[in-house]
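User: quick one
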Amino acid sequence: MVDFCRRGEEAVLELREKAGVPFFVFPLLEDTGLVSHCFSTRLGGVSKGEFSSMNFSFTRGDRPEDVMENYSRMANALGADRERMVLSWQTHTTNIRRVTEADAGKGIVKERDYRDVDGLITDVPGITLVTFYADCVPLYFLDPVRRAIGLSHSGWRGTVKRMGEVTVRAMKEAFGSEPEDILACVGPSICKDCYEIGPEVAAEFEAEFPQEDCFRILEKKRDGKYMLDLWTANRIVLEGAGILPDHIEVTDLCTRCNPDVFFSHRAMGEKRGNLCAFLSLKE
Ligand SMILES: [Zn+2]
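Assistant: Done. Structure below.
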């Protein structure tokens, strides 16, 4: 049984389980019939200890053969081809890579010949985009008209730099996507009540976002620290990029609130695995 708590009354994400692997999906994306996608949990894999059990990071000290088995299990659950997954190389940039057939397998069965890539876009069916998380915000994009997708990593640094808008612009340039056609989902990540930040981070938001937005994003506390609402901040960024409000879905699941289900940097520090977002266009 997977036990978790939601933020809010209505379920935004739905829990699925296939071949022993639990994962979350957005009905907004699933109902199009055009994509296969999910946000992983830490359950259903073979990794041990702090990586227990569905860890997707090869770089945090876990056994590579265990991580590879985890990818195989997820690929099987999603009906995806593990050999055609393409992994990001996240360093809190706003660099986006247009993924082509030549990239299939990079980061999983082939060396990556790129780095500092926090966003992936493609119009190639059957290639699965993969990005990494443990509290930061995953952004999913689908243009059902041009048949193109995007997946971006938007932590506080990415959010300040408007990663969501950068991704929409990249899809427009690469595929001719119109923002009003795009569906966007803000995936499981840290909630406002769990995310305390210092004044130096708050100042970066105050420099980038107008005051009325900052009232919605930042809550100042008596001790001079702030609570940061990355979910609302990313919604503001996506709406600012021209995506229609009812084409945006925002997670009701907090990674930090559910340490039995998700890896959370704030809950676990460096002793943890990584979750992943997966997204592919159906063939
Ligand atoms: Zn929380």
